[in-house]
Each structure stands twice: as C-alpha cells, then as structure tokens.
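Inverse folding, one chain.
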C-alpha cells in the first residue's frame, strides 16, 4: 500500500496510507488512513504543490463544503470496494 509521510509538528512525522486518489478541478486529493491494517481514521488530503516541485505539499481538507464534495466522490469510487 502506498504511503505518505507528513511532518505534523516540528521534527515529528506521521505516516498515512493511501486508500484512493482522485483529481477534482485540477487538484489531487488522497483518501488516507493512519493504520496500515485494521481500523484507522480516514482523512482527506489535498496536494498543494506545483507540478514541478520536488517535494509534495499536502494539507488536510477542513472546509466543510469541500470535504463533503470530495468525500462523496471517494464514496462513489469505493462503492464496490470493501475496506477491511
């Protein structure tokens, strides 16, 4: 499973595992979980980096309207997928 490491605090990183990804309006979104196996919290990240940047810049989606819209897309993409 693909993973993304984020610096969550100065000097502290967290690893998130990618469940699905999609592009909406030219922005890449990632549905991630904090657990490689078993139950984990699902979060949505968006990639804010420019295409030519060497390192990706991610941000958690917090805007309620944006979060709902992207979550609905992920729900549709994963409709026939059972996440265990």
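Residues assigned per position:
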């Amino acid at each position: 499973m693909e993973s993304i490491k984020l610096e969550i605090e100065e000097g502290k990183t967290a690893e998130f595992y990618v469940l699905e990804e999609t592009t909406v309006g030219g922005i890449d979104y990632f549905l991630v979980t904090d657990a490689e196996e078993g139950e984990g919290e699902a979060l949505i990240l968006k990639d804010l980096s420019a295409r030519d940047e060497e390192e990706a810049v991610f941000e958690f989606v917090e805007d309620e309207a944006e979060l709902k819209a992207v979550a609905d897309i992920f729900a549709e993409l994963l409709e026939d997928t059972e996440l265990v």
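The first strand starts at residue 3 and ends at 9. The chain has one helix and five strands.
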